[in-house]
Amino acid sequence: MSEERSYVIGTHDAEIERLGVQHRVWRPSVLEFWRRGGLAERMTVIDAGCGPGHAALELAEIVGPAGKVIALERSRRFLDALETRAHARGLRNIEIVEADLASFDWASLSADLLWCRWVLAFAADPLRIARAMTTAVRPGGALLVQEYYDYGSWHLAPRQAAFEDYVARIIARWRASGGEPDIALALPALFARAGLAIEAVRPVVFAAKMNDIASRWPMGFAREFLPTLEQGGDMTAEEAEAIRQLLDRTEADPDAFVMTPGVLQVRARKLER
Which residue of 15, 75, 92, 111 has the fewest C-beta atoms within 10 A of its own C-beta? Predict the structure, then answer.
């Protein structure tokens, strides 16, 4: 399978841009999440599954020249995008590592903080990766993980049965592909068993009107994922077109809202020996 096809939507330019919008939507919440986790200057931070590096660039600016960000990602195309942006910003404190998180030697790293967002939900063995991640964090260090806990909470208002059926098909395709969209529900107990102290578990859901940038994150994904279901035989061309028209009508409705899929931010601390 090509790199492009092995990702949920792909690694092309339009997807890099979509991920940039996604990061802008989540940026205020994520900055607060990092702050509460103790992110500070001079730290060594791991960005596990960094994608094209929208978060890695922010982390590098926060830890400063005396700190370091280790950006782990298996997509060379995503890493090239990160390298280009880091160079443009004059950031020299990002160590780029091309690696598959499932086979990576996590014990070879030693970091003050590990950040991971929307990676474990797509992994074939997410719990094994999550356990392995804990070995890369020093005693006293933090793991900050953001994953979905209730993907089925994605709704439109006014409520649309056809859209809810579409979301159910996305979830079914996701699980058939070997992922688990609600993986966050398993993480607090797993981290506790791995010897970490769970400091906070916070659910985050947005309710956004169509003129709010926050709506561009879920509505954009809704459009971009339609070809995946069509090509996989999970949806006919006619059904896909009906969803596109529904999205058009919703985005043109000044009173419509989108309720985003439920996300859990899990903050855990590695206990001192």
Answer: 92
